[in-house]
Amino acid sequence: MECTALTTAEDLDLKRSHCEHLGHQIAKLSAYIYAAEHRLLTLIREFDEQEGWAHLGFHSCAYWLNFKCGIDMNTARERVRVAHALGRLPKVDARFAKGAISYSKVRAVTRIADETNEDYLLMIAKHGTAHHVEKLVRLYRSAERLQDAGAAKEHHYNRQVNYHYDHDGCLVIKGRFPAEQGALIVKALEMAMEKQYPKNADPDVSAETSEPTPIATRSADALAEVAETYMNAKPVQNSTADRYQVVVHVAADVSAETPHLEGGPHVSAETSRRIACDCSVLGIRQDQDGEPLAIGRKTRSIPPAMRRALRMRDEGCRFPGCTNDKFVDGHHVEHWADGGETNLENLVLLCRRHHHLVHEGGFSCEKSKSGELIFRNQRDIALPAWASLPAIPDSDIEEWLDNEFWDRGVDSDTCRSQWYAGERMDWNLAVGHLFTKSTHGVSADYVPSG
C-alpha cells in the first residue's frame, strides 16, 4: 500500500511538473504570436499605404487579405483598422512589438486611444485582463454617447439636403443629418461599397498608374448604387418605367456622333460599350436632319432565360478574388460591337467595379483556346485564379520563432497580466479617469456601473 501511495504521489508530481512546463510553453508561444501579429499588422499597414492590392484589381486591402491569406472579411477589415491605428499610437505599438500585450487588448484599446490617454490605457492593459480592457472601452464609449444627448434635438432641426448642377454638368449634393439618420445613410453607403463593389468613376485616373479609387469616389458610386436599388424596387403607383430610365444615345456609326446622355453631356465610347453589355436597346432610324423615321422594338441584350442560366453558372462576379454576387452585369468577352455573340460561351458575370475595370480601367478579359477565362491587369499580366499560402518549413516552430524574435526577450511572463484574481475594478473611477484624459472637454457625470 505504501509503494502504491508513493507511486501515485510521484505520478501526480510528474503530471503537475509536465503541466507547468506546458503552461510555460503556451505563455511563451502566445507572446511570440503577439510579436508576430505586430509584425503582420505593420506589414499590412505598409502594404495598404502603398496600395499593393490595387494593381491586382482588388477593392481594398481587406479583400486582398480575404483572397490571399484566407482571412474572413470582417476580421480582415478589423486587422486593417488596427494596423493603421497602431501607426498613430507609438507606445501601444512598441509594447505590442515586444509581445507584452495581446492582440485582443490592442484591438480594444485602439477603438478609443489617442495621444492623451495612451499611457493610461496601456497601464490598464498591463495590469488588467483582456476582459477588463474590453469592458472599460465599452463603458467609456457608452458614457461618451450619453454626453451627446443634449445636442440631439438641435441636430434634428438642422437636418437638410441641398443639391445643384455645377457648371461642368456634375450634380453637387450637400447634406447635414442627425447622428442616427446619418448612421443609417452611412451604413447604406458602406453596404453598397462592400457588396456592390462600386466602380472607379474618376476620369483623371490613368489605367497605367494603377491608382486606387479614393474613398470619396467609392462613396459617390455607392450612393448611385443605393439610388439604383431603390429604383429597382416596386414602382410608385401611376408611374411608368420610362420616367426613371437613364438614356444613352449611341449612333450606329460610332464615328458619326459621340455617345451622350439624353439631355446631358457626352460619355466615352468605352463607357457606352460597357453600358451596352447588359441593358435595354432601342433602335431608331433617323433621316439626315435627325428626324426619327422608325422606332424598332426594344430588346434586351441578354434575354431573361439566358441571364438565369448565366447566374446559375457563374453564381456571381468571376473576377479573381471577388465574392460579390449582387448587382452584377453580364459582360461580353468579345463585345457585340466587335462581332461577339450574346450566348453563354461569350458571357461572364462581373460586378460593377470589375466591369468598369475591364472596360475603362486598363484590365482585360479573354478566353483561351481551351475555354479558360483569363483576366489581365494594366501591365497585361494574367491574374491568378486562386490563392495559396507559402509552405511552412518543417523546422521546429519554436526554434523558428526564437530566431525571428530573439531580440525581444520573450518568455512565459512577457504577456502576463499583472492583476491579482479577486480584485475588483472600480469601473466608475476607471471610466471617469478616461474622461479627464480626453480632449473632448466633457465630464463624466454619469458612468454606467459594471
Q: End-to-end span in angstroms?
A: 53 Å
What is the N-to-C succession of helices and strands? HHHHHHHHEEHHEEHEEEEHEEHEEHH
Radius of gyration: 29 Å
Count the domains: 3
Q: What would the average pLDDT be, to the nearest integer?
A: 75
Widest sheet, order of strands: 1-2
What's the helix count? 15
Q: Mind summarizing the main beta sheet?
A: 2 strands, antiparallel
Unreliable segments of 5+ consecutive residues: 198-209, 238-244, 292-300, 440-450
Structural class: mainly alpha
Q: Tell me what portion of residues adopts beta-strand conformation.
A: 5-15%
Outline, from the CA principal axes? Answer: globular
Helix content: 40-55%
Number of strands: 12
Structure in words:
The chain is mainly alpha-helical and 450 residues long. The protein folds into three domains: 11-147 and 406-437, no CATH class; 152-238, no CATH class; 304-376, no CATH class. 45% of the residues lie in helices and 10% in strands. The protein has 15 helices and twelve strands. A two-stranded antiparallel sheet has the order 1-2. Strand 11 and strand 12 (373-376) form a beta hairpin. Helix 5 (103-109) packs parallel to helix 7 (130-147) and helix 9 (179-196) crosses helix 10. It is globular and about 100 Å long.
